[in-house]
Amino acid sequence: MDYFGLAQKYDTPLYIYDFDKIALRYSDLKQAFSGRKSLVCYAVKANSNLSLLKFLASLGAGFDCVSVGEIKRALIAGAKPYQMIFSGVGKRDDEIKYALTNDIFMINLESEAELERVENIARELQKVARISIRVNPDVDANTHPYISTGLNENKFGVDIDTAKKMYIKAKKSDNLQPIGIHFHIGSQITDISSIIQASGIVSKLLTELKSVDIDIKFFDIGGGIGIVYNDERDVSLYDYAQGILKNLSGHDITIVCEPGRFLVGNAGEFLTKVLYEKRNKDKRFVIVDGAMNDLLRPSLYNAYHGISVVGKDKDHTICDVVGPICESGDFLAKNIKLPICESGDLIVVKSAGAYGFSMSSNYNTRPRVAEVAIISNKDKLIRKRESFDDVIALEKECLE
């Protein structure tokens, strides 16, 4: 890839996404479940760029949304309402109304209180809400605690007994139609045994529900498949799919999955420019124009991203790669080996396609960066770089 050409054309910092890689990942996942009816609903939170959503919609993807803003994004990008799921542990009344009014395929419920709210709002609107219930199987995903969601100590979902009660109540309601069952135990999972174990637990509940004439048509296995950032191993999609399908033997049901990071994570890179190097006694710092407001994962999770200097591969010494933000937590990497850098050198941060731009902010009044897609080896701007005027626009309107 011509990083210097992209930097000259679009400036830095910059996000770059390879759409061809994304299409291949989507195809591989669909193929893994080719023996069954399946719906791949991309988790919009991972990367919500409109051009990316439009591209995925053109491939046939549905969308998993966790806010009304994400629903609106997906609809603008051409998503089909009957392929959209509305998830999230805390939905406002206006968000529920919007989802019902726009005939979103399925609302994923996370509590008894939420079931009552959705039922009441559906009644007010004289509609029938298609629902699924997020079951918490109490399975350890063996991932970072901030992105573990399948244990009782996590805020997500309900236990098996509560789920049974909710399904029975929904079955009796004139305004609720239970059509799905859902679980999601965490993100960046590279040991698929935990997902397969969870699918077995939830499959038993599915059997019990069908025995009392609650006709569940969609088995939503969530997302969470991990990617390679450093020394992880790629998940075998065949083993992943076959393990889940084995637990669903005898059930005629559509598989729904909600990948985010898996589709876009390794397809994205963050390009940043070296400003200069600095030494504090024996400590070496490479100071770049990208910062924690642009890519938060290293600061938030102490996450590892592979880093390289474009065109240089010799004389590696230990350094921290840090940005201009006035926080000690502003770093892209710590204690890694890089070549000696000069002002103007370009640094590529790998595996930045997921939870990169979508978690960025204007901290320190830094405009958010531009995003570029690579499609068939051609670059295309898919989000303009913010200007200072963009950053202050809503505040400026309120100045007296």
Describe what you observe in this structure:
There is one protein chain. This protein is an alpha/beta fold and 400 residues long. The protein has two domains: 132 residues, Lyase, Ornithine Decarboxylase, Chain A, domain 1 (Beta Barrel), CATH 2.40.37; 243 residues, TIM Barrel (Alpha-Beta Barrel), CATH 3.20.20. Helices cover 31% and strands 24% of the residues. The strands form two sheets. Strands 1, 10, 11, 12, 13, 14, 15, 16 and 17 form a nine-stranded mixed sheet that branches. An eight-stranded parallel barrel has the order 2-3-4-5-6-7-8-9, surrounded by six helices. α6 links the parallel β5 and β6. About 2% of the residues have low confidence.
Which blocks of ≥5 consecutive residues have pLDDT under 50? 143-151
Query: SSE string, helix = H, strand = E?
Result: HEHEHEHEHEHEHEHEHEHEEHEEEEEEH
Shape descriptor:
globular
CATH superfamily label of the largest domain: Alanine racemase
Evaluate the radius of gyration: 23 Å
CATH architecture of the largest domain: Alpha-Beta Barrel
Measured as a percent range, the helix fraction is 25-40%
The number of distinct β-strands equals 17
| Number of domain units | 2
Distance between the termini: 49 Å
Mean pLDDT: 93
CATH topology call of the largest domain: TIM Barrel
Structural category = alpha/beta
Q: Largest sheet, if any?
A: 9 strands, mixed
**Count of DSSP-assigned helices:** 12
Beta-strand share of residues: 15-25%
CATH class of the largest domain: Alpha Beta
Say what oligomer this is: single chain
